[in-house]
Amino acid sequence: MKLSKFFAPTLREAPKDCILKSHIYLIRGGFIHQIGSGIYNFLPLGKIVLDKISAIIQKEMNKAGSNQVTMGFLTPATLWEKSGRYEQYGELAIFRDRKNAAFVLGPTHEECVTEIAKTYVKSYKQLPFSLYQIHLKFRDEMRPRFGLLRGREFVMKDAYSFHADGECLNNEFNNMKDTYKRIFQNLGLDFRIVDADSGAIGGSGSKEFMVLAECGEDTIVTCTKCDYASNIEAARRQPKTSSVIPPQATSPYHKFETPNVKTIDDLSRFFKVDTHFLIKAVVKKAVFKDREEIAIFFMRGNDKLESTKAFNAVKSLKPDVLELFDAEITFLEKYNLPSGSIGPIHLRSITGSDLIFFDEELRDGEDLICGANEDSFHYVGVNLAEFQDLLYKDLVAVQEGDLCPKCCGVLQYTKGIEVGHIFKLGEKYSVPMEACFLDSHGKSKPFIMGCYGIGVTRLLSAILEQKSDNKGCVWGEVAPFKLDIIISNMKNKEEVQFGEKIYTYFCDLGIEVIIDDRNERFGSKMNDFELIGFQYALIVGKRLNDGIVELIKREGLEKQEIQSSEIIETLSKIL
Length: 575
Ligand code: ATP
Ligand code: MG
What we know:
The protein is α+β, with helices and mostly antiparallel strands. Strands 3, 7, 8, 9, 10, 11, 12, 21 and 24 form a nine-stranded mixed sheet that branches. A five-stranded mixed sheet has the order 16-14-15-17-20. The chain is globular and about 95 Å long. The chain binds adenosine-5'-triphosphate and magnesium ion. Adenosine-5'-triphosphate binds next to β8, β21, β24 and α11.
């Protein structure tokens, strides 16, 4: 390819709303072009990198025994009604055709693929099998941002496996875990496999693949001693204890006036009690399609509510909840709740709400202090064992310094970008969609399923967040073109002739070479090489007279002088 004919519109500046380096370089390097909120066109360079990433994924998926298909981007709404996700999936984009039939732009394809299995697979003899696709998805994300990291339209590799029993599913889950490891290793990424929340996809167990990067939207909890690693959304810890003895241990249950006490810290100072013995209330507004409800979460005073755990708690009672928001004072007033003095006593009758949850670590807690649901009053000597029908859930965000649930080592945080997620779905879709097979005794049984996703377009950003430097893109294996031959001065016939000779030689061998034959200054050709991130640059410049050319490796920008007579030999070894 000749750069003079190649459509690679590099820019000096990125638009102001680009914050992350991956977003800036993808736009400035002419890889992608934004056409709407969370929607991007892939320009030639972007398309090349996307295809290279896809090829690595495709090769490993085929090796792992999965069959490639392409399912419709448009999926009939009837399928989603059947699985129950038409009402529950918050990011669905729905439209109606001329006959007023409703369709969903596929955000994921469990429904669709289950329909395929239901149509064709009748007997246990046809199991197990796995289908995958590399295809478009659309999710009407609340906050599309950071370029390809969180788009609305994006490319996913999604695979689905079907089994007769759980053991077979476990084998495939491990097979996919190993396959994903190879894919991300082949991409040269530093990643971690972590326990995860199963989110809108559902199912029993899931693992996420996290590319370590400062900008990552996910907080990962890892143990400093063992291999425990979890997304904070699903992280566990050893139950927290307090070495301080509660001074109230002997106080009987009693209401106390607490003037000007508004926060947990105020309360701790007022009673001179460790926050461990205070019950903190966090109030949220649960939003449904047609209404709002109050949801109240109790935990120890030194703990924080984890938002996904809170959402899952509400969802376990009301599956049609869409989102939780912080409750404003006016919202509390509607339920007669005084902010700063909210507690569990008589709360159900005061609010009329059944969305009241207690953190597991408060289970049957004794000698606690809590709000009295009356401005400037608190109760001391509260024993939760005396309450009836409290709903306990794991609600708290594991904090740095907490102890590992596996080995009691100290836990710490890192940031990651989720690039893959594998799920054991079990019967979650096959039961509602009545997708069954006949087992070896002739009995009808629902398929046992697994599903396995990789964010293909998100990977472009993740690679750059981890590898790029302050000059531009570093791609590793998936760089667009292995070699960029830079002719320093297009007016110099020797340089042009030499560059073209090398170019033709490697093109004929089928190696991806591009030649920078534009009438541009040398400096701007170098800038483009660094910004775009071709794997190597061969500089054909003034020193060709002395029989010397220069080879630069983009990763690390190491330079090496090479005799022009030996260049073909040297490059043949490298490329
Ligand atoms: P997230 O927590 O980031 O929203 P998710 O849990 O919704 O991700 P899955 O439903 O598991 O994601 O989808 C599989 C993969 O698709 C994810 O691991 C991620 O890499 C990718 N992905 C999900 N949403 C987006 C998006 N909006 N833009 C780009 N890639 C995405
Ligand atoms: Mg999501």
